[in-house]
Design a protein that fits this description.
By secondary structure, this protein is α/β, with parallel strands linked by helices. Strands 3-2-4-5-7-6 form a 6-stranded parallel sheet, with helices on both faces. The protein has a 6-stranded parallel sheet with strand order 11-10-9-12-13-14, with helices on both faces. Strands 16-15-17-18-20-19 form a 6-stranded parallel sheet, sandwiched between helices. Strand 6 (126-129), helix 7 and strand 7 (154-160) form a beta-alpha-beta unit. The radius of gyration is 24 Å and the shape is globular. It starts with a strand and ends in a 30-residue tail after the last strand.
Length: 570
């Protein structure tokens, strides 16, 4: 069967089971948009290419399947670089298709030409510049295999316009052997000696901690992790990227570690004698000052990517494996620490003495952002998906929302991309239309990508957005207050400009506002009753509110600062 390259590309995506593409057409990719008309694949027309990438990320994080985005050449391609970098940092499976100028024009500085494969070489698992239409099926099959196996990540396919217009004889790879990926062996057999060494360390531990990272979610290890933790009685912490991998309500869960982690989680790591890292990469937001991080602990490091071993912290045992297989092997081997009663007694003391805390509403009546999140949670059904932007609101969402299952927390971790929340929430809702999706956003983040609510309205994707509007770039303000002698340089945004209610209405959404506790409860109720169009709520919150606990940048986790009320300062 003869097909054009464009037809072969769409047919190849259908072969991979793609349900939705997030994209925006343009000259170089235009031939590929014609066969979409006859395809079973849904196309979501975004308002900016960055939105397409973040929607694909949100789709992937909520569903566990690779997200797909398609844009044109030049600025279309460069606009999606940020989502690609974000996905690379967070190990999110993406397949990004970019149009390219005709092969004869490559290197001539043609209209809307850019070397997108060169630009993205350092932020993709792999990328392809297609030379002929006959290569397209293999490239697509390889892209999905690369994006979803081993350590997941983004893969880019750059397709010149003349290639999509030329003819090819249809075929599709029937096995991995046809993908032509020499040297790519993402799955390695478990090292029995390493498992035995890990078991020995676990059996001897008196103060162990299970340090669970995003790799636990990537390998769908939640059942195995729960069984292992319950049998061994070890305390569990889940990083920002692992929220939902272990139930927040579980008595063994200490919460999130790191710069804005729970006091008990941070301190348990600092005092432990064995740190069992499961798919975590010892990120600087977790370790603080590396030389002072978990100073008395031996380390067992489980990761699918061997490049992570001893990169930040030296490990006594390294196990190259996905988390599911490694935890299953440790559990089957009977790894069990003994006499944890004293350790748990100490941990419970920290939990009781230093819980999360915030002040009651101020005299001016402005809302506490933490309370807003608690009220949304209280009014939400189990399994509600929460997306966030980046900043104070992201930390509060991770702290105060209760994550009980995988795929319910959609956020930007490693790259810390402002503007991630709204498009990512749209992607999550497109992938999980049966779920309620809330975006907890800040006024700064919202202004970066709010135009994608037009996409949500036009495409019938009814997300709900809670703007914690404190009129500032909140996290920057917090740092300026604490570390720059309250010199607030270029951080004020203005609570009333823009008018978020009118802006939401102009985009075809429902706009609501709350300034008081009663209004807050009422607008949340209204939002939950509206399920056919997007809803945006402008919550007026106190700009002086700060995120606690907090470890200052570069400081030791031993110097964690709790809320002033817990220090006797209020």
């Amino acid at each position: 069967m003869q097909l054009t390259g464009a037809q072969a590309l769409i047919k190849s995506l259908e072969q991979e089971g793609v349900e939705v593409i997030f994209g925006l057409p343009g000259g170089a990719i235009l031939p590929v948009y014609d066969p979409i008309i006859d395809s079973s694949i849904r196309h979501v027309l975004v308002r900016h290419e960055q939105g397409a990438g973040h929607m694909a990320e949100g789709y992937a994080l909520a569903t566990g399947r690779p997200g797909v985005a398609m844009v044109t050449s030049g600025p279309g391609a460069t606009n999606i670089v940020t989502p690609i970098a974000n996905a690379h940092m967070d190990s999110t499976p993406l397949v990004v298709i970019t149009g390219q100028v005709a092969t004869a024009a490559i290197g001539t500085d043609a209209f809307q030409e850019c070397d997108i494969t060169g630009i993205t070489m350092g932020i993709t698992k792999h990328n392809f510049l297609i030379q002929s239409a006959q290569e397209i099926p293999r490239a697509v099959a390889a892209a999905f295999h690369l994006a979803t196996t081993g350590r997941p990540g983004p893969v880019l396919i750059d397709v010149p316009k003349d290639v999509t217009q030329s003819m090819m004889d249809w075929w599709y790879p029937s096995s991995i052997d046809e993908l032509d990926l020499p040297g790519y062996r993402p799955e390695v057999p478990l090292d029995a000696d390493a498992i035995n060494e890990a078991v020995t360390l676990i059996n001897a531990a008196e103060r162990p901690v299970l340090y669970v990272g995003g790799g636990a979610l990537k390998s769908r290890a939640e059942r195995e992790l729960l069984a292992f933790a319950e049998r061994t009685k070890m305390p569990v912490v889940t990083t920002l990227m692992a929220r939902g991998a272990f139930p927040d309500s579980h008595e063994q869960h200490l919460g999130m570690p790191g710069m804005h982690g729970m006091y008990a989680a941070v301190t348990a790591i600092q005092k432990c004698d064995l740190l069992i890292s499961l798919g975590a990469r010892f990120d600087d937001r977790v370790t603080g000052k590396v030389s002072a991080f978990a100073p008395h602990a031996k380390v067992i490091h489980v990761d699918i990517d061997r490049a992570e071993f001893n990169k930040v912290r030296e490990s006594q045992v390294t196990i190259q494996s996905n988390v599911t297989a490694a935890v299953s092997a440790l559990d089957a081997a009977g790894a069990t620490p003994q006499n944890l009663e004293v350790w748990w007694k100490e941990i419970r003391t920290w939990q009781e003495r230093y819980p999360l805390a915030y002040d009651e509403p101020s005299d001016d009546g402005l809302l506490r952002p933490q309370r807003v999140i608690e009220e949304i949670l209280a009014a939400s059904a189990p399994g509600t998906i929460v997306a966030s932007g980046v900043g104070q609101h992201q930390m509060w969402a991770s702290q105060y929302w209760k994550f009980e299952e995988p795929g319910t927390w959609v956020n930007s971790g490693g790259a810390g991309t402002m503007g991630f929340g709204v498009p990512a929430a749209i992607g999550a809702k497109a992938g999980r239309p049966d779920k309620t999706v809330w975006c907890i956003d800040g006024d700064g983040c919202f202004q970066m990508t709010a135009q994608e609510l037009v996409t949500a309205r036009a495409e019938g994707i009814p997300i709900k957005v809670a703007i914690l509007n404190n009129a500032y770039l909140g996290m920057v303000r917090q740092w300026q207050e604490m570390f720059y002698e309250e010199r607030y340089s270029e951080v004020y945004l203005n609570a009333d400009l823009p008018d978020y209610v009118k802006w939401a209405e102009a985009m075809g959404c429902v706009g609501l506002r709350a300034r008081t506790m009663d209004e807050m409860k009422d607008v949340i109720r209204q939002a939950n009753e509206i399920n056919d169009v997007p809803v945006v709520i402008d919550f007026r919150t106190d700009s002086s509110e700060k995120v606690f606990p907090m470890v200052a940048a570069g400081a030791s986790n031993d110097d964690i600062m709790v809320h002033p009320s817990l220090r006797g300062e209020n």
